Each structure stands twice: as C-alpha cells, then as structure tokens.
Amino acid sequence: MRYGLMPVTNLDLPPVSDIKFDAMKPEEIAAQLRCPNGDQAGDVAQRMNHANQSANRACLELLQVATGDRVLEIGPGNGAFAGEIVAGAAQVAYTGLDWSADMVDAARKLNRALVQQGEAAFLQGSSDALPFQRASFDKVLSVHTLYFWEHPERHLNEIRRVMKPGGRFCLAFADRAFMQALPFVAHGFTLYDFPHAERLLRASGFDILAERQLQDTGHSNTGDVVDKVINIIVATVPAFHVSSRPIQQDPGR
Distance between CA 237 and CA 116 in Å, rounded? Predict the structure, then answer.
C-alpha cells in the first residue's frame, strides 16, 4: 500500500566538518560511504548524519516504537540517532550493528551513557550473519544500507529470523532514478526502486505494511545540493511464518 509523501523534519545535529569530498575520487567516496574508516571516518559519519536525517526521522516515526521494545538498527554509523530511538518509549533496548569498527567505536563513545545504563549496545558485524537468537527483536530498521548487500536475500533472511512475528522492519533507500546520476554509485552500489525492493521482501517471507516516499532538497553525502527521493518500506513477519524456511530467489533479478 503506497501512501505518498511524508513531511521532512530536520534534527538538531552538530555542524558538519569541512570534509574534502571534491578531492576524492568517486571510488574513494563510495568506499567511505560503504564502510567509514581511517582518519576520515568521523567526518564521513557527520556528513551522513546530516544528509540522511530526514530518512532516519521518518523511519523512527514509522517504526512505532512501544514500551519494552527491543530495537535493532543495521548500519547506525556513529549512532547519532540511537538516543531518539531509546527515548521513543519506556524500557526500550537498542542494539546497533555496523560493518565499520571505527563507527562502532565512535557510537559507543557518543552514546556512552546509554551503553553504561544498559539501554544501548553497539556491535561490529554484518546483517547476513546476525549474532542473535531467533525472534530477538520487535523492531528493525536499516537506512541506506541495501545498496551494499551483495546477496540481499541473505541479509533479509537473517533479519526475518531475528524478528518477532508481527514486528516491524523499516527499510529506507534512495530511489534508483535519483541515485543513478551520482558519480560514486558506479562503484559497488546496487540501485533499487519500490517494485524491486518489494519483490525482495516478499520473496524473503515479509508482508508489506506501508510505503512512504520522501522528497527533499538538501545536501547529499558529497555536500552537493540535490533533489532527493527516498523510498521507505515498512514490512512485517506474519505470525504464521516459520523463520527457518529456505529463502526464495528474487524472480526479478
């Protein structure tokens, strides 16, 4: 079910450092966006937080975090939005899983109080091999990670496995028509539109609950002003679904 556009709300984030993306080759930009690392990791995280804040905020709204929820965020970067999630309801337990060891370290430092209080945890890993038991989480979100999944069905199968039946999964990604004009996407990005992502989710055993599209003029991850089109799909695991069912290949690929 497609519901049209969502209003864009900006978060109050720290200022962006003067990261010199214009001095980087497209393949270097792509590598940093995929897995921020090294001396530039902190600046890249800040840039991503500013560029992606509207999508993150929309996902938080659509997740409908409730009292006692266990929430998993895949690809949280430096965890800038973890506090928003934990504050969404009472007794929320948050876990962030990121490929980048530098981002995990930064997230733990940024959210030191939440980690010390046992309200948040940050782990390094990949969503195609999640280190959690079946039916561990009520809510899962992943913003701007889909492009980097070489075998997306493996990631979605794992997400389905760790979700509780009836839970919510929020997947956000920039639309193919918008992304294909960006020079760095030729280096390791797979682009999607609503129909392609829908097929992947359904083939992995998810039901589609809702869809939203954000349209926003703002800074991209390279600092350029662009007209963004961000797609968001909210899906669930049916209560009757058996999470160990073998994955089906997406017929559209």
Answer: 32
Task: Give the pLDDT band of residue 9 (cuts 50, 70, 90).
Answer: very low
Which residues are within 8 A (CB) of 230 and not within 5 positions of it... i.e. 6 or more apart?
54, 55, 58, 172, 173, 174, 175, 213, 214, 215, 216
Structural contact between residues 171 and 142, judged by C-beta atoms closer than 8 angstroms = yes
Q: To which H or E segment does residue 197 belong? A: helix 194-203
Give the Cα separation of 149 and 221 in Å (integer).
19
Cα separation, 229 vs 245, whole angstroms: 34
**Single pTM value for the model:** 0.84
Cα 17 from chain centre:
23
- Confidence class for position 84, pLDDT limits 50, 70, 90: very high
Q: Cβ distance 151 to 145 under 8 Å?
A: no
- Three-class SS of residue 105? helix
Q: Using the 8-state DSSP alphabet, how is residue 75 labeled?
A: S
Domains and CATH numbers, the chain: 2-11+20-236 (3.40.50.150)
Position 49 scores a pLDDT of 79
